[in-house]
Sequence to fold (189 residues):
Amino acid sequence: MTNRWVEYVKKFARDNNLSYGCALSDPNLRKGYVPIGKKAQAKRADEEREKRQDEEEKRVMEEKRVMEEKRVMEEKQVSANQPKNLAEAKTMLKKALKKELKNADLSKLAGLIEIPANKKKKPAKKTATPAKKTATPVGLTDAEMTKLKHLKGALFDLNRMRSMGVYVNEPDRPMIERKIIELQRKLRG
Fold:
């Protein structure tokens, strides 16, 4: 808080269109100033302190009210989500499990899932002619072929940039070349 005299001088300067220094030298400045005694200053400080305390109490009460409202709303939501009977609980559990299974990695769950006895697949009837076994193809999967094409394209881009005198992503070159060689070896079988 600034000094009351300084505030009065600044206000006087603004009102009379003067600078602060010119206002200090103006003879009319001292005529309008009324000093405040120590008792009045103490009373004013007490009033300001009480005002701040009241504002703080109001803020705390408002925060408590908001927190209580949030808690009540959460309790209502939890109670609304509670099943009313056993059948509803089972359906809610089934829905939750289906949702989890949709998001889960099924390859990890393959060994954990059991097929119920009444839904087991019946073994296929054996025919007189045995099924022909096809040889497993030697080579790359579609994903690996795509990866090989992308790597060759990246190496081509690096070589083209190098021919122009621009050396971009050169630290990646050995890794790209190594992966291309690995995939080509796997392709050859």
